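Reminder to self: tokens first, then the designed residues, so the page reads top to bottom the way the pipeline ran.
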């Protein structure tokens, strides 16, 4: 069965949502890390600052990676990617108002019978 066009659009959306995370990671590494290293807080302050920045970079990177994985899986019509995209859309409901609308539309679309059947046909 041919991949529905809406699934392709959602996959592209997942790829696009990863871009700000990747840019944010790069910005932190380029601007915040040198600032933490040259701060006046001493070695303890620099260590704590670098640790916090590392945690933030890892969380942002994990979020971006999960979006890329969801997009890739959707393009491959993987059932797990459909559920991952639904979970990501549910989380985006908290980003009022735009994320709420986009998340609700993604959930509605991915739960439609014909979309579910398209994923099951590929399994």
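Designed residues (123 positions):
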């Amino acid at each position: 069965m041919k991949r529905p066009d809406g699934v392709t659009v959602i996959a592209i959306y997942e790829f696009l949502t990863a871009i700000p995370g990747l840019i944010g990671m790069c910005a932190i590494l380029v601007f915040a890390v040198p600032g933490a290293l040259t701060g006046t807080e001493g070695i303890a302050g620099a260590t704590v600052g670098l640790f916090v920045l590392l945690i933030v970079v890892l969380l942002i990177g994990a979020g971006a990676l999960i979006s890329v994985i969801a997009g890739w899986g959707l393009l491959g019509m993987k059932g797990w990617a459909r559920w991952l995209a639904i979970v990501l859309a549910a989380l985006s409901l908290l980003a009022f108002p735009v994320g709420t609308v986009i998340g609700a539309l993604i959930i509605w679309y991915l739960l439609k019978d014909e979309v579910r059947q398209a994923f099951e046909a590929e399994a």
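The mean pLDDT is 93.
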